[in-house]
Amino acid sequence: MKKYWSALFILITTALYAQHSTDSLSVEKKAVKVTIQGTHVSMTIPQGFKPAKDFIGIEKDDKTYIEVFDPYENDYSTSSAGFSRPGFENQGMDVFTFKTLNVGLYLAKYAGMRNSSGYKKYELVFGDSSFSAMVLGHCSVNDDAVAKSIENSIMSVSYDKQAKVNPYIHSYFNMNDSASIFKFSKVSDKIFKYSMAGKLKLEAGEANVTITPFTLDAPMTDKEVKKTMEGIYKKDGMTGLKVKNETDTKINGYDAYESEVYGKLNGKQTLIYQLTVSSNGNALLIMGVTNTDMENNLAEFKKLAYTVNFKPATGK
User: Fold this and answer.
1) Does the model's pTM come out above 0.85?
2) What is the Cα–Cα distance from 179 to 6, expressed in whole angstroms?
3) Are the beta carbons of 171 and 38 closer than 8 angstroms?
4) 17/6 Cα distance (integer angstroms)
5) DSSP H or E run through 127
6) How do the pLDDT tens digits run along the chain, 316 residues long?
7) CB under 8 Å, gap of 24 or more: what pairs does 302-307 form?
8) 2-16+166-310: which CATH architecture?
């Protein structure tokens, strides 16, 4: 296998571990809203903006854009706790507007601010007890018209909680979670997360799956992969490691390395299922972690993992 190990080391470690006013969003009746691909969010699109290439949102250029995080956190209370005028001002921002409001039925907070260079930034966070979402606008040109169009777009936001979204719209792969009990939950730090029934908030030790995309860099044998992974698990506190059912295989025609790692993590006997699969310079580390009902959860991990499909190299 080939990998960029320094970046992957960080990603794997992350994958293992958690003047105010009241207003409401309004939009001109004739304005047409567009759903942002990969989200439940709709908004009006400023003139000259197009779907972003490397993130979920829209952009005019690489420094003038609106990015959408959906979901952002497990719940609105968590994500809004530190969202305050003093908090932004302590970061050196000049906050020129701050509001508490609603996005449809959802509580929200909104801030408009500028940095010392005069560039403007807009943030909207909203949600309820089951989710939160964030919309972030950035205008790095001293152009009041463009800045105003970004603000108007953010203030037009609406949210359809029941809408079906494609979380893989900006990725180089697809998964099908219909047959497994582990459903897509969210993307966080570019790691795709899956939980039973797609729950956003996991209980301590609850079984889950993560998929970490990474790029290939240097050739490595399966033996080297095994040694590196074991070192990472030990660093994260896993003891008594035993690797079983490891194999160099093919999954849907793609080169893959599959294994099961057993040991104690946080005082509990734990299984880590891992599948590393690659195609045309792109790779995925699929990991399932469980400390209960290992046999059944292992089967469910594989039901999800074996649906991996890389998109054609010419497009997403």
Assistant:
1) no
2) 34
3) no
4) 18
5) strand 120-128
6) 444 444 444 445 444 543 333 344 543 445 689 999 999 999 999 999 999 988 899 999 989 999 999 988 889 999 999 999 999 999 999 999 999 999 999 999 999 999 988 899 999 999 999 999 999 999 987 889 999 999 999 999 999 999 988 999 889 999 999 999 999 999 888 899 999 999 888 888 899 999 999 887 755 556 666 667 777 787 778 889 999 999 999 999 999 999 999 999 988 999 999 999 999 889 999 999 999 999 999 999 999 999 999 999 764 4
7) 302/273, 303/179, 303/180, 304/175, 304/177, 304/179, 304/180, 304/182, 304/194, 304/209, 305/209, 305/251, 305/273, 305/275, 306/251, 306/252, 307/175, 307/176, 307/177, 307/179
8) 3-Layer(aba) Sandwich (3.40)
Strand order in the sheet with 57-61: 50-51, 57-61, 64-73, 131-139, 120-128, 106-114, 94-103
Residue 198 CB burial class (10 angstroms; 0-12, 13-18, ≥19):
middle
Q: Could you say which DSSP state residue 22 is in? A: B
The superfamily (CATH) of domain 33-156 is: Mog1/PsbP, alpha/beta/alpha sandwich (3.40.1000.10)
- Centre a 10 Å sphere on the Cβ of residue 120 and count the other Cβ atoms it contains: 24
Q: Are 241 and 252 within 8 A, CB to CB?
A: no
Instruction: Give the DSSP H or E segment for 47.
Output: none
Beta-carbon-side half-sphere exposure of residue 122 (alpha carbons within 13 Å):
23
The DSSP letter of residue 2 is E
Cβ 71 vs Cβ 135: under 8 Å: no
Angle between helices 5-16 and 222-235 (to 10 degrees): 50
Map out the domains of the chain as residue ranges: 2-16+166-310, 33-156
